[in-house]
Specification:
homodimer; 250 residues; Alpha-Beta Plaits; 32% strand
Chain lengths: 250, 250
């Protein structure tokens, strides 16, 4: 009998060319499929909540797959964690209705961009956070981040490529900049994200820090619908997919 | 004119065979000396607060060196951080009296042993914490840890080798086990440490967790002055040199 499984995984993306399988590059999906093959001796079709770029991390990344194999979910979890490398872990594995799809059933995601804000780099955060030398005024950046809230056409915050077609309107439901010691975090949740959206938002907030923009410029940058108006794309290393939202299962 | 400099450094020890220079092995000291050579074009004699084993980390490791080069301390700090790899950082660099010696002037050190206590490993803590599957009763382990406090002969908590001669009495001034979410930490400070002392203390605390000992066994293990009475040596990956104590400079 065909079953549908939802797996939540976590990974340090430093050593991977993103999620998506690519030729001649090590991807999280590729390594995950290898582990699956060792456990199930078959290659189920995996549906993922999204792609992530090279070097981007995930504290929660969701994928679903249909399979006829009758392995209990908790057994599959243990076996996959045995075969996966230490920088990838399966957090949970559960049976879900057959019409569940990790990407199409997703109703939102939360990302966090982490910035190590100290003149001295941290040896423990190499590839895990952006190192920013000058002191960040997190209150000012938080003020700027408030302007992302709501439904907007985020064309200015999107690297155009084939994957983003049609409507560029996304609804941002959380947007804040906070500090915990020397760690500054930009947290943003939305019903969906355009390509590079969080990294361009972060680069724009850092341009506010550098005095290139004031917080009140954000609405104008959004309205302009032009990528050239926003700040640069921040490096991948600070970005974490934090949470994937699904409607409660009935 | 000869000057004496105190440098505080931080490193992720995962990629190193400890601090000490060794033939045919990459050590923190070796890499540090290479960077020094590039900056100063000379090879000062470095005095270090201690050695660390392969895979052990340092949030604060101290070293002193005498040099006649007149480079300002803050310039040396910046230049070293430029030439050092990302998993080593110089936190501070200051001039100290000529009689200061990173090892002989040291009056104590604090270590922290970190344990990721969750059935699922963390991809972000590989090589950075011990992964312990079963739930740890941190209150019970803390009770056991209290018995380390005070001046004791710690022969039972020492891997005998050439470096530990003479008196095995050390005075433990801090010893506690705490939990923060899934992270369990054993913190221990003393006027000095024997070889593998913190790792054997940790292994013994984990043996308490496993029911091999009760907290009240610790005094008997200490009194027995026999390595075989204590628990195993915990892996290096969870160990951090946290702080090095020096008498205030007059």
């Amino acid at each position: 009998m065909e079953r549908n499984l939802l797996l939540k995984i976590q990974y340090d993306g430093s050593a991977y060319h993103g999620w998506q399988v690519q030729e001649n590059a090590r991807s999280v999906q590729g390594v995950f499929q290898e582990a699956l093959k060792q456990v199930l001796h078959t290659q189920p079709d995996i549906k993922a909540c999204s792609r992530t770029d090279t070097g981007v991390h995930a504290r929660e990344f969701c994928l679903s797959m249909k399979l006829s194999h009758n392995i209990p979910p908790e057994r599959l979890l243990g076996a996959l964690n045995h075969f996966l490398p230490p920088d990838i872990a399966v957090l949970s594995c559960e049976e879900v209705p057959l019409d569940f799809h990790a990407r199409y059933s997703c109703c939102g995601k939360r990302y966090v961009y982490e910035i190590w804000n100290n003149p001295i780099r941290s040896p423990f955060l190499h590839g895990r956070a952006l190192h920013y030398y000058h002191h960040i005024d997190e209150k000012k950046l938080n003020e700027a981040a408030q302007h992302f809230l709501g439904a907007h056409d985020f064309t200015s915050f999107c690297t155009l490529d084939n994957r983003d077609m049609g409507d560029f309107t996304r609804t941002v439901t959380e947007s804040s900049v906070t500090r915990e010691g020397d760690m500054v975090r930009f947290t943003v949740a939305a019903d969906g994200f355009l390509y590079n959206m969080v990294r361009i938002m972060t680069g724009t907030l850092l341009a506010v820090q550098q005095g290139r923009f004031v917080p009140e410029d954000i609405p104008k940058i959004i309205e302009g619908k032009n990528r050239k108006l926003a700040g640069p794309t921040a490096p991948a290393c600070g970005l974490y997919l934090e949470k994937v939202f699904y409607k409660p299962q009935i």
